[in-house]
Write a structure and sequence with these properties.
alpha/beta, Arc Repressor Mutant, subunit A, D-Maltodextrin-Binding Protein, domain 2, 3 domains, 5-stranded mixed beta sheet, 11 helices, 43% helix
């Protein structure tokens, strides 16, 4: 028996609904049902009665729920105490270019908090939010912040960068280093995959809409390297963050956009109820002084 079995059981017992519990836990309903069956098999008792119209706790389930809650609370306290003792902050980011960008601020923070160790963890942008929800990260650098995300987490804007255009070296506009977005109203575009980089394609659409056109998106990519390959081997245009220019980009040139361009704001996000919330807020403030 593992703690996840207890968490899963408590979620079902509190909602008395497998679908709602699965949604709360961010797992599929079949996976949740399987975990509950495994738990019941290990205990040798039936914890929940499933009916067509309802799910109810058995007497054994009610007794087990009380103990499960106590165990989960004690485990949570033990984890929090251990983390607090070590003062280790798990810092989620996407790519070393971001850690380079915030390097000076991170070093200043480390000097000001000598008892705190930062553990950088690199994940895809979409995985950063999921890791925060699973409490596998204490704080993360994330891009687009929706209202729903602001309700779920404490967030703070850190810096705003102007996205730049990436074009093939032989593109008709390749020799121009400054372009207006309207100059590309007839261009094909390579966009960022929504599954891996949520919100980035929408930044392009919003900026293009303000410039009076809808971008003709002909493909999507899930990495900077893929963006450069797609652009270099076609007449399509992509938009990238300025630090991406430090990566190998054979056959690709860059151009800046005239204001308002395509602004990209990086945020820090962390759990509001974290026991280290004051320290995390201090870290976010330090990172916001990157400029």
């Amino acid at each position: 028996m593992e703690l996840r079995h207890l968490r899963y059981f408590c979620a079902v017992a509190e909602t008395l609904h497998f679908s709602r519990a699965a949604e709360r836990l961010h797992v599929t309903q079949p996976a949740l049902s399987r975990q509950i069956r495994d738990l019941e098999a290990e205990l040798g008792v039936t914890l929940l009665r499933r009916h067509h119209t309802a799910t109810v706790l058995t007497p054994a389930g009610e007794a087990f729920l009380r103990r499960a809650r106590e165990i989960l609370a004690a485990a949570g306290e033990a984890v929090s105490e251990a983390r607090q003792a070590g003062r280790q902050l798990r810092f989620g980011h996407y790519g070393t270019l971001w850690t380079e960008c915030f390097g000076p601020a991170l070093r200043r923070f480390a000097k000001q908090h000598p008892g705190c160790a930062l553990q950088p963890i690199e994940l895809m942008p979409v995985e950063l939010v999921a890791a925060l929800r699973r409490q596998e990260l204490d704080i993360a650098l994330i891009g687009t912040v929706t209202r729903a995300l602001q309700r779920e987490f404490a967030t703070q804007p850190l810096c705003t960068l102007e996205m730049q255009l990436a074009l093939a070296a032989d593109h008709p506009l390749a020799k121009r280093r400054l372009l207006a977005l309207a100059d590309l109203r007839d261009a094909d575009w390579i966009a960022w995959d929504e599954a891996g980089f949520p919100g980035r394609a929408e930044l392009l659409r919003d900026a293009a809409r303000a410039a009076g056109f809808a971008p003709r998106i002909v493909g999507t990519v899930d990495s900077v390297a893929s963006m450069f390959v797609a652009v270099a081997t076609s007449r399509a245009v992509g938009c990238v963050l300025p630090m991406s220019r430090k990566l190998p980009h054979s056959g690709v040139v860059f151009a800046r956009l005239r204001p308002p361009g395509i602004p990209f704001t990086m945020h820090a996000a962390w759990a509001r109820d974290s026991r280290q919330a004051p320290l995390l807020a201090a870290l976010a403030t330090a990172l916001s002084k990157v400029n």
